[in-house]
Write a structure and sequence with these properties.
The complex is a heterodimer.
Chain A lengths: L4 H10 L6 H18 L34 H5 L5 E2 L2 E2 L7
Antiparallel strand pairs in A: 1-2
Chain B lengths: L8 H9 L5 H14 L6 E4 L1 H16 L10 E5 L26 H8 L3 E6 L38 H8 L5 E6 L5 H7 L2 E4 L19 E6 L2 H11 L29 E5 L9 H16 L3 E5 L4 H19 L17 H12 L2 H14 L5 H23 L4 E5 L16 H5 L6 H5 L4 E8 L5 E8 L4 H15 L9
Parallel strand pairs in B: 2-3, 2-4, 7-8, 7-9
Antiparallel strand pairs in B: 1-3, 4-6, 5-6, 5-10, 9-11, 10-11
Helix pairs in contact in B: 2-3, 5-6, 7-15, 9-11, 9-12
The chains are: A mainly alpha, B alpha/beta.
């Protein structure tokens, strides 16, 4: 399964990474090299094998459904590149 | 006057308890060593003021007889661990001047036990790399050089700064994270000890995430004993990480020096790769002999899925990374590059903020998770992962106590030597270490010899889940037989 230039552009957009036209060819070659490398997994007989979901067998831990933190808006916002009061600022998303 | 920056962690701990010198003197000696070693680029954020303040507090506690297990011991912390009030960047431009308001659980445990923060160490960007060359702050130069050469070598990666700093005597121990070999491979390249604990042994809370089902924090130090001391403080249950186990933390130091008589050590035939350097093969056999001399038995074993671990890793790890790194969007923290609209802002921010290797892995991850490809790639890789783990389980069920392998297929290489044209060339460095992450097992790398060019080589021991103690016992035997290795100071 080799990727073409259009797939590179589509994947980049899905990943929200801007690519300039000169990068497409080299990215295509690199992605195809990696995909060719992982292609050998096709040799493995995985019939009846469960996909791994947890490397250490353990039951999902539950905690009490109660508020145990909060009122820390200032520290949550302290690293924001743009903010106003207790809000993150972003470019306009709705007209 | 003893050189305070050449002591082992255990020696320094015992001397501090005897009040042979103060924590402040010990910290100052390391800060001076750091100042002289800037050419190595091992530390990306020095914290001398905090270090001196912490050392003073340690001295006060030691004077009152209240010192913790790591009281006054100065450490380097990989820049992937969030440290409250100290810049944490994962060595990525996208995190720029991020200053966490919180402390990772592992580092909080270290400070609870009295350790001192010297600074944040360099690493591959988001821990994606095997040579520390993908860091936004530039590569780390290994303190080791080939005999008669001044060429700069890589310290390994991704925890290259942490390993180089310990090898060069800039800190008495350090922390790393290991997703595919990022502790064990740099430990081998730098001639020191590094341990990746069992998945779930240390909390991942507050560590910048790369691939959550594989990431695990662990220690670097100059001796096996020192790593055992550090792990005891780092490990432990944490309600903030649901994958962190609620198991008592043993006194790992007691395992150092324990008898290994009667232990059965597996030698996996699939690790005898075609084209493997004769020196590595000889060292491996030498390690097996050392273990036999100490009363262990070595047995050839088979791990037939070994060759599929690396390709499966290069699906699972990028897939998880693409999901974890979706949070870097230029909105809540880190870099923002403005765009025409919000989507363009995301795309420009991520294009500028992530380096080449990180962008490549995010794109691979996005592709293998995208509609129509999920089953062929990701699901298949997770099934292969089940089989990889089954290989190890079978060996352990057959009575194998631990497995001995080389840590890396070669010694350290030169900066710029690998992976320029073909990313796979670099990925192959992790061929012996990545299986351990895929199966969630503990692994330790112990320095075992020098190659013909004078560069360190390591042997890896792989253990049963949560049986780090056996690794410390076996590692100590190898260490005793092999001796220790210190680079000649050129910086």
């Amino acid at each position: 399964m080799a990727v073409d230039s259009d797939t590179v552009r589509r994947v980049a957009h899905l990943a929200r990474i801007a690519v300039v036209e000169d990068e497409v060819e080299s990215l295509k070659a690199e992605l195809n090299a990696i995909l060719a490398f992982v292609e050998q997994l096709g040799e493995v007989d995985v019939r009846g094998v469960e996909p791994m979901t947890s490397v250490t067998p353990m039951a999902m831990k539950m905690r009490q459904d109660e508020v145990n933190d909060g009122a820390i808006a200032d520290s949550i916002l302290q690293n924001a590149p743009a903010r106003e009061d207790h809000f993150f600022l972003v470019p306009k998303v709705v007209e | 006057m003893i050189d305070l920056s050449s002591l082992t962690l255990a020696q320094a701990r015992d001397a501090l308890r005897r009040r042979a010198f103060s924590a402040t003197e010990l910290t100052d000696a390391h800060l001076a060593a750091i100042e002289q070693a800037r050419a190595l680029n091992a530390i990306v954020e020095e914290t001398p003021e905090r270090a001196r303040a912490m050392a003073q507090e340690s001295d006060a506690r030691l004077a009152r007889g209240e010192g913790g297990p790591l009281e006054g011991l100065p450490l380097g912390i990989k820049d992937l661990f969030c440290t409250a009030g100290v810049r944490t960047t994962a060595c990525s431009h996208i995190l720029d001047d991020f200053v966490p308001a919180y402390e990772s659980t592992v580092t909080a445990n270290l400070w609870r036990d009295g350790a001192v923060l010297l600074g944040k160490t360099n690493n591959d960007e988001f821990a994606m790399g095997s040579s520390n060359e993908t860091s936004h702050f530039g590569p780390v130069i290994s303190p080791w050089r080939r005999r008669g050469s001044e060429q700069g070598l890589v310290p390994g990666g991704s925890s290259g700064g942490s390993a180089a700093a310990v090898a060069a005597g800039l800190c008495i121990g350090s922390t790393g994270t290991d997703t595919g070999g990022s502790i064990r491979q740099p430990a081998a390249f730098c001639g020191i000890v590094g341990l990746k604990p069992t998945y779930g042994r240390c909390s991942r809370w507050g560590i910048v995430a790369f691939a959550s089902s594989l990431d695990q924090a662990g220690p670097f130090a100059r001796t096996v004993r020192d790593c055992a001391i550090l792990l005891r403080s780092m490990a432990g249950h944490d309600a903030k990480d649901t994958t962190c186990v609620d198991l008592a933390v043993p006194d790992y130091e007691k395992a150092v020096g324990a008898s290994i008589k009667g232990m059965r050590i597996g030698i996996p035939k699939e690790y005898r790769m075609p084209g493997m350097a004769a020196e590595i093969e000889a060292l491996w056999e030498c390690g097996a002999q050392w273990l036999r001399d100490a009363g262990a038995e070595t047995v050839e074993i088979s791990l037939p899925m070994t060759k599929y671990a690396l390709p499966a890793y290069y699906i699972v790890a990028p897939a998880e990374a693409s999901s974890n790194l979706a949070r870097y969007d230029g909105v809540r923290y880190g870099l923002r590059v403005s765009g025409r609209d919000v989507i363009d802002m995301y795309e420009q921010t991520r294009a500028k903020g992530f380096g080449k290797e990180v962008r490549r892995r995010i794109m691979i991850g996005t592709y293998v998770l995208s509609a129509g490809y999920y089953d062929a790639y990701y699901l298949r890789a997770q099934k292969v992962r089940t089989l990889i783990k089954r290989d190890f389980e079978q060996c352990f069920a057959d009575g194998i106590d631990a497995i001995l392998t080389p840590t890396t297929p070669s010694a350290a290489f030169a900066i710029g030597e690998k992976g320029r044209a073909d990313p796979i060339e670099m990925y192959l460095n992790d061929v012996f270490t990545v299986t351990v992450n895929m199966a969630g097992l503990p692994g330790i790398s112990v320095p075992s010899g020098l190659d013909s060019q004078g560069l360190p080589l390591g042997l890896q021991l792989i253990g049963r889940p949560f049986d780090e103690e056996t690794l410390f016992a076996l590692g100590a035997v190898i260490e005793r037989a092999a001796g220790s290795f210190t680079p000649e100071k050129w910086w």
